Amino acid sequence: MYKQDATNIDEALEFAIDAIDRGNMKLGSAALGWVLEREPSNRIALLWMACTVSDEDTKRRCYSLINS
């Protein structure tokens, strides 16, 4: 888990986006993973997750889940 004191999805998303903005893709991705375990169809988390991965197939999968 990315952060022991995360209490809700919104806080986790904020934490993830902040980490990504600071260039810490690994931490941001971990936080987004936590969100997506709880809400697999969270469009915001999927969009940001696509920003953290370099594999094109994984990016496409994230984008396709957003549109489903």
Helix share bin: over 70%
Q: Average pLDDT across residues?
A: 89
Distance between the termini: 27 Å
Which ranges are low-confidence, i.e. pLDDT below 50, for 5 or more consecutive residues?
Answer: 1-5
**How many separate domains?**
1
CATH fold type:
Serine Threonine Protein Phosphatase 5, Tetratricopeptide repeat
From N to C, what is the helix and strand string? HHHH
The helix count comes to 4
Number of strands: 0
- Shape descriptor: globular
- Estimate the strand proportion: under 5%
**Major beta sheet summary:** none
| Alpha-beta classification | mainly alpha
- Mind telling me the C-alpha Rg? 11 Å
Architecture, CATH level 2? Answer: Alpha Horseshoe
Could you characterize the architecture of this molecule?
With 68 residues, the protein is mainly alpha-helical. The protein has a single domain, classed as Serine Threonine Protein Phosphatase 5, Tetratricopeptide repeat, CATH 1.25.40. The chain has four helices and no strands. Helix 2 packs antiparallel against helix 3 (43-52). The longest helix is centred in the middle third of the chain and has 14 residues, at 25-38. The chain is globular and about 30 Å long. The termini are far apart.
